[in-house]
Design goal:
Number of domains of chain B: 3
Shape of chain A: globular
Strand content of chain B: 5-15%
Distance between the termini of chain A: 38 Å
Strand order of the largest sheet of chain A: 2-1-5-3-4
Shape of chain B: globular
CATH architecture of chain A: Roll
Largest sheet of chain B: 6 strands, mixed
Order of helices and strands of chain B: EEEHHEHEHEHEHEHEHHEHEHHEHHEHH
CATH topology of chain A: Ubiquitin-like (UB roll)
CATH class of chain A: Alpha Beta
Radius of gyration of chain A: 12 Å
Distance between the termini of chain B: 64 Å
CATH topology of the largest domain in chain B: Rossmann fold
CATH superfamily of chain A: Beta-grasp domain
Number of helices of chain A: 2
Structural class of chain B: alpha/beta
Strand order of the largest sheet of chain B: 4-5-13-10-11-12
Radius of gyration of chain B: 22 Å
CATH class of the largest domain in chain B: Alpha Beta
CATH architecture of the largest domain in chain B: 3-Layer(aba) Sandwich
Oligomer: heterodimer
Number of helices of chain B: 16
Strand content of chain A: 15-25%
Helix content of chain B: 40-55%
């Protein structure tokens, strides 16, 4: 068992076109670090120089925006689904 | 059009159906060749063209002739003296997109651009994530141009807006959640299906359509930029594009550069941008919307950062109003000017009132209010708050008795 991370189209070049990647990390932040180990370069696409999630990236755990949870400290458990989605849409 | 360019890092992309930078997820924006545009676009060339938004065609992102929505735009700009007196300001103008063609909101502007461009790129199915007005416009304009349409809306939308999408034969999908959840789902669907999502993968083209509202305001004022423009904010996109329209007209020498401020209006039940502006922040905190102004109920506004920057750069302000103030704003505009706006219009009027009362819009200045949608679509929001009919038999005696009773009770007060 593990959590699933849904990779958005603009990042799939880094994940060999994998749409869904499994991670074992316990938080969103750790999951991003784990992705970076397997897919070098992905971290700088998601986080800015200060380590914060880029302002045009939205991250959801089980469909809830992590800014309403605990940001990168948000826990990720077995079976959870993490979605990374471009913020620019709608309106 | 020259290219698409990331607003964050400046990387350029070809003019396809794509909306975010692969590197930093920043929004892509259409680039134009202004030197070339300057050669064909003048006040007289514009004025010689039909009175639609397409008279500014060089500044709208289609490669050839538009094929969708030829009649859209050039809505009335009304001088609202009675409203100005009540608000306590020298001059008020209402840009009245409640009568935009064909679906009675400013969204017809963005949709005619998005669908014209979608056809150029070879799409046959179009889609959108919508708080209602956009769904209506995509449904109608797709029907009129033989495109298949899927529209995604929050399931609890006003009945008027639901029916106004279904009637055109669009596939209407109600999502059990608020708009931000609809939007997230659509971002995922857009990545999977080869459709032209007007406000997802077509967003760079779509959003430019809003500039036409600003172009028209300037032309209708006699080629001058208003001192103050009050714009309702959902994603914040319209506000940023109104600013861009003023900048482009200055750049092309079509209007002199004068001092102007662009102000933003939100409902208190969904005010992430206004809250940040009032706190002096350049970033916003997402919220969960709870307001009758459903067309503005976006808790995670895509252009929130840029809207804050526009207000900061132009010296504009933002504010927000309660549901009761929204209804009062709708009543005031109707009472004073005979214009029935939807809830977003009530937000704009209500916020203008606050900005004037607090001196953020000085009493001696001139203001344009952007009224973006028609009240017939949000009857639920005001029904029960606008008085009631008095029903009588078809009898002169009953009518006279009623008048006498009401005269007496008025005199009593």
């Amino acid at each position: 068992m593990a959590a699933k991370v849904r990779i958005p189209t603009p990042l799939r070049k880094l994940t060999n076109n994998e749409e869904v990647v499994e991670v074992r990390a316990g938080t969103v932040g750790a999951a991003i670090a784990e992705l970076q180990l397997r897919y070098p370069g992905i971290k700088e696409r998601l986080l800015d120089d200060t380590g914060a999630v880029r302002r045009f990236v939205n991250v959801y755990v089980n469909e809830e925006d992590i800014r309403f949870l605990q940001n990168q400290q948000t826990p990720v458990k077995d079976g959870d689904e993490v979605s990374i989605i471009p913020a620019i849409a709608g309106g | 059009m020259k290219a698409l360019k990331c607003r964050e890092c400046g990387r350029e992309y070809p003019l396809t159906a794509t909306h975010v930078c692969e590197f930093d997820f920043g929004p892509l924006e259409v680039m134009y060749d202004y030197d070339r545009i300057r050669q064909s676009l003048s006040r007289s060339s514009i004025q010689s063209r039909p009175q639609t938004m397409w008279r500014y065609r060089e500044l709208l992102p289609v490669a050839g002739e538009p094929t969708v929505g030829f009649e859209v735009g050039f809505t009335p700009l009304i001088r609202a003296d009675r409203l100005a007196r009540v608000l306590g300001v020298r001059e008020v103008w209402v840009k009245n997109d409640t009568v935009n063609y064909p679906t009675l909101s400013f969204k017809d502007r963005v949709v005619s651009v998005a669908l014209s461009r979608a056809r150029e790129l070879g799409f046959t199915t179009v889609a959108c994530a919508s708080t209602g007005n956009l769904a209506n416009s995509v449904a109608a304009n797709a029907a009129a141009s033989g495109l298949k349409a899927y529209v995604f809306i929050p399931a609890d939308l006003e009945q008027g807006k639901v029916v106004n999408s279904l009637v055109y034969g669009a596939e209407v999908i109600g999502i059990k959640g608020h708009y931000d959840e609809v939007n997230r789902l659509c971002a995922e669907i857009a990545g999977k299906y080869g459709w032209a999502f007007v406000n997802v993968n077509m967003r760079p083209y779509y959003a430019e359509g809003s500039k036409s509202m600003g172009f028209e305001i300037v032309e209708q004022l006699g080629w001058r930029i208003p001192q103050h423009t009050v714009v309702p904010m959902a994603s914040g996109s319209l506000l940023t594009k109104i600013r861009k329209s003023y900048q482009e007209l200055v750049r092309l020498g079509l209007t002199p550069e004068t001092k102007y401020r662009v102000h933003g209006a939100q409902a208190a039940g969904c005010a992430p941008i206004s809250t940040a502006q009032k706190a002096g922040l350049d970033f916003f905190k997402p919220v969960k919307p709870n307001t009758i102004a459903k067309s503005l109920a976006i808790g995670t506004p895509a252009d929130g950062f840029y809207a804050l920057k526009v207000m900061k750069d132009t010296g504009g302000a933002a504010d927000d109003v309660s549901d009761d103030e929204v209804r009062a704003g709708i009543r005031l505009l109707a009472d004073c000017e005979g214009i029935f706006a939807e809830t977003a219009g009530g937000v704009t009027v209500g916020v203008a009132r606050k900005l004037i009362a607090s001196g953020r819009i000085p009493a001696n200045d001139s203001v344009v209010l952007c009224v973006t949608g028609n009240g017939l679509k949000t009857l639920d929001a005001v029904a029960g708050h606008v008085g009631r009919t008095r029903d009588i038999k078809p009898s002169l005696r009953e009518f006279e008795a009623l008048l006498e009773a009401e005269t007496r009770s008025t005199a009593h007060f």
